[in-house]
Structures are given as structure tokens and as C-alpha cells.
Amino acid sequence: xxxxxxxxxxxxxxxxxxxxxxxxxxxxxxxxxxxxxxxxxxxxxxxxxxxxxxxxxxxxxxxxxxxxxxxxxxxxxxxxxxxxxxxxxxxxxxxxxxxxxxxxxxxxxxxxxxxxxxxxxxxxxxxxxxxxxxxxxxxxxxxxxxxxxxxxxxxxxxxxxxxxxxxxxxxxxxxxxxxxxxxxxxxxxxxxxxxxxxxxxxxxxxxxxxxxxxxxxxxxxxxxxxxxxxxxxxxxxxxxxxxxxxxxxxxxxxxxxxxxxxxxxxxxxxxxxxxxxxxxxxxxxxxxxxxxxxxxxxxxxxxxxxxxxxxxxxxxxxxxxxxxxxxxxxxx
Length: 332
Hints:
Elements: H1 11-25, E1 32-34, E2 40-42, H2 46-61, H3 65-80, H4 82-86, H5 90-103, H6 106-137, E3 153-154, E4 158-159, E5 162-165, E6 182-185, H7 187-193, E7 211-214, H8 223-226, E8 235-238, H9 243-252, H10 254-258, H11 262-274, H12 277-288, H13 294-302, H14 317-326
Antiparallel strand pairs: 1-2, 3-4, 5-6, 7-8
Helix pairs in contact: 1-6, 2-3, 2-6, 11-14
């Protein structure tokens, strides 16, 4: 629902994430694996260990020499393009996944076999640097729903919001460390989405459709009709059609979730009647004597963070702005 890139320049943060990942793989603290013989095999770095584990999976998976050669070649290609994979754009990931899904060839099957290896490294790197990543992004509310704060803070331990993989880390493990595949999210959205694919990546754009108030048949109501509703009669919907947004809405249950907030919408409607044009004019005049601008008075009544670039700073800010637009209440 929220565009993460709007209002912030994320490229330097992506580069920093890449450097953290490379720093981890270059760590020379002699990592090892336990062999069946109960002996340990040590490696010069985690990069060396990862290569060994991937090759081990290839040899377990492939018996045909020709196929094995193809898989090893593909592994080497991925490794040589690690930077590009970690910084892969949402568009590139989507294009690559569509290609994999279409072909469903042996290389795609190989990815599934490598998932336990890649995911294990993601979890380690995420534990090490995930909090720093979210802190750098400085996102205040869940980009998927704009309903909950997702602060980082330090209590007994360092806490952070969950990192959802827009493209499932078990289905598409090659992108499990890709910056634009990691979405800071609230627990509810991350849990409900699980491994399902949704349509709109918050690094691509925000929702274009607006909240509207409808009758039981889904027909949008006019301003005069809205004022006659009781709280129980308020029904929220998204206006217009957008295939990508509709997938997000369906999988994340956004329409149902937001219809749990009709009491808040009812308060906005009541407040809009209390602060009609004349009341607002009187309020502006009284505050101007104290040096306040009319826009500051608007913020005082309706709250801040109601411009597009500020939605992520406050829960329900997009809903608030859309309902105020329905009621012809705009910042002057």
C-alpha cells in the first residue's frame, strides 16, 4: 500500500546491505561443517563453505554428467553475479521468476534443492544485520497495510519488525538476500502472506486506488449519503480496478481488515460535521492570532502525515486522507 522509495533515497542503503552480505561471506573465522564421519571440514570463508554446500547438493541431485555440468555452470554464473542478484530490481526479479515458472526445467528444480542452504545463510545474515537494515530504512508503518507501527527499539534485546520476502525464500531462494525482496512488515501481514505471491512490491509503487464508502451492493456513496450512515452501516472498499493491487488486497485481506476500522471512519465523519466551513474559519482566525498558519490548523484538527510522501509515518494515514477527500476536506 505504501511506496517505500517515496520520500527516501534507498540506493545507498541497498549498497550498504550488499557490503554487509559480502563482509559476512568474506569472514575468515574458519567456518566448518560436520561430516558423516564426525570429523569437521574447515573452510577459508563462508563463501568457500557456501560453494561447497551448493556443489554437494548438485552432486546429490544430479546423476547425469551432462546435467551436472549444466548445474555447476549455472552455480558459477550466479556466484560471479552475486552483486547483481543482491541488488536485483523488483522488475528484474519478477521477469526472472516468470521465466523459471514458465520453463520449469532442471535448473528451476535445482533451486528448490538449494533452498535449505540459501535460507540458512539468509537467517544468519538477517540475525546479524537485519536490525541495521530496518533502522537505516527508517520505515514507521507496515508498507503492506499502513495499519501498524514497525519500530526498531532496544529492550532486553534489540527488536525489529519482521522481514517479509516478497518472493518466497523457499520457492525462489536465489533472491533470499536480495535487498528489494526484503520488506519490513508487521507480524500480521507477514503471517497472512506467508509464501504466497502478491502483486505489488512496495519498492515499486504505492496503491493508486482510493478508499471509498459504499452501500451493501458495493456502490460508492455521495457525501450527503455518507452523512446519513450509522457506524454499523459504513462499508469500506477500494475504488477502481488494478490487477496488482487486487492480488495484494485479496491475499492480505486488506478490505476485511480495514472494515474493522469503521469506528475510526465514523469519528472522521462526525468530526467533519462538527468542523464545518464556518467552524474551521473561526478556528483558523483564532489560531492566527497565536501565529499559526491555516495549514497548521488543518494538521491540528485532522492530524499530520496526510500527504502521499508521509503516509508511512502514521498508521491509517492513507485511509484518513482518502476519507477526507470524499468529504471535500482538503489542506489549503
